């Protein structure tokens, strides 16, 4: 009889293949609106596949920028790395584990258990070397990504990008300005005050006005436009006329507010210098004084943030959660997803239920592993990102990079907790979690975590099958719906505001969390490696399709993205070494602990050397004789962003 573990994988694979078939049939037979004119023609499926296959990462990055290139390159090289891991794992580890003396009652998928390994067994040398090789490969990929993002201008020497970065380094952000002063009065005063520090190298100074009234009017206008579209769809002419009249009233209000001179400022100003060297000199040498009765000693000169930080618009103040609500929602979110939706929680609940119903063992195996893995993959792909987006939108984040980092940290904490720590602690119920944590010896914590690693790994093999096929093709079904709303297939035909935004924060987190899961179970359950490779490979082609045809890309803060992704790599490698050191310590092979520590130090030294290289390497040298225009500096960002 087929082993229960293999039966679970087969049934999960069949279920997901059926789901994939349904999605493809849905995409193929869904009726598209007829095109009008030669510019709105649809291209055939064969031409679409051919263009996806022939388009390189650099070709796609022409539309999405260097973030697109870096993301797709990481997916491609990660799939190659996992393919190499799969070859080493299947050829080097499975024969050793299958040769161990295991009781016939064992249903483990890889025929591996810690108890079957003898202390200081020579066969442990090969798993140990594989562990070191896997760590070294992950370190190399992390350093490749770091070097790639550091030297991104070698890949993208476009003049416009260089002008934008040059402009950002030439802008000074002034904070601490009294909000009671009128912007026009302050601009003239600042011009006189700062000329002495800048030696006449200031192009323009703009104080950001307070435009709260216009923001509220624009929000009302957006709501009214939505009502007009909805009533047009519902064929309600009377209601439509009412909302059109309301829209005209709001337009008149906005026009009057725009023509009125602002009486207050937002407390911020932007100074555009001729060169980054002048901006740096102004930041370091400015000392506030008092002029015309106005105290300037509270003014602070700062480097300009990234452009997304400048135009970042958080939720209106009346919708932002208070500190208490933010803590409450985060706490509820943690208990909901780290406890109730932990994989073994579902497995334990369903298993206890099936015992009472007395189902057959084969059906019980499918329900116990396949159904929870499919459920977790759906929650992980849909519910978690929606929940985190809700919390981020309601939190008070002053900068886009701040919101970006907050979302990334939430993904790391929640995903790693769900996928690694709580399953390995046998988190079947909340009581078992508390009991487990209460009696764990901190010096043997890693050994305690690997006592049920085979059972958890068996679940995650099914989970990766669901993620590789079911979750990826559900993503494809969701993005395909944008082609059925009257838009042409090429993304350049989209209205920029109607195309969805590709969320790099979530996609990076999902890919790197799966990498962490694959690494953690790669030694104890090597059959998980090819399924991890399958997931990343399928995701590479689907995301290539999405970035080429469906999504628009908003540039992410480069250093924040770079630092967080590399940090996530280090966390994943650290967890991998922690778990596998527990495996070898439980088996009596303590020499691998020292080798793993040496490898960790080598990886940290590599990252530090990369940081030092980046710190002293600057392609935008201040001696470059280049003046920039007003349009590249986004000097009046709130006016251009909010009022446009």
UniProtKB/TrEMBL annotation:
According to the UniProt entry, the coiled-coil residues are none
Q: Can you give the residue ranges of the CSC1/OSCA1-like 7TM region domain?
A: 326-584
Q: Name one GO cellular component term.
A: plasma membrane
Protein known as: CSC1/OSCA1-like 7TM region domain-containing protein
Identify the taxonomic lineage of the organism of origin: Eukaryota, Sar, Alveolata, Ciliophora, Postciliodesmatophora
UniProt keyword annotation of Membrane present: yes
Q: Which organism is it from?
A: Stentor coeruleus
On the tree of life, the source organism's domain of life is Eukaryota
Entry keyword set: Membrane, Transmembrane, Transmembrane helix
Q: GO molecular-function annotation terms?
A: calcium-activated cation channel activity
Q: Where are the transmembrane segments?
A: 6-27, 77-97, 124-146, 327-351, 371-392, 404-425, 445-465, 511-541, 561-579, 591-614
Pfam families, sorted: RSN1_7TM
